[in-house]
From TrEMBL:
One Gene Ontology term of the molecular function aspect: ATP binding
A Pfam cross-reference name: BolA
Annotated protein name in UniProt: ATP-binding protein
Organism field: Sphingobium chungbukense
Keyword set, alphabetical order: ATP-binding, Nucleotide-binding
Family: Belongs to the BolA/IbaG family.
Length: 77
């Protein structure tokens, strides 16, 4: 069963409260998304650590209920 974009955004925001989250459904199938996550709490973290924080927020759903996620992370300008 596909995962709704808003559910993904809600999970990320729950784990990273200062995150601005933008989700795009890449294929229109609810299985292939792109996410842009911008958070001040990422400051001082390298990109790998930022992305690990986002994947941890998804609680192991990657590769299961959430098939594919193209992830971009950043700190605010």
């Amino acid at each position: 069963m596909p995962m709704a974009a808003e559910d993904i955004a809600d999970m990320i925001r729950a784990a990273i409260p200062d995150a601005q989250v933008e989700i795009t459904d890449l294929a229109g199938d609810g299985d292939h998304y792109a996410a842009r996550v911008v958070a001040e709490s990422f400051r001082g973290m390298n990109r790998v650590a930022q992305q690990r924080a986002v994947y941890a927020a998804l609680g192991g759903r990657m590769g299961g209920v959430l098939h594919a996620l193209q992830l971009t992370t950043a700190v605010p300008n």
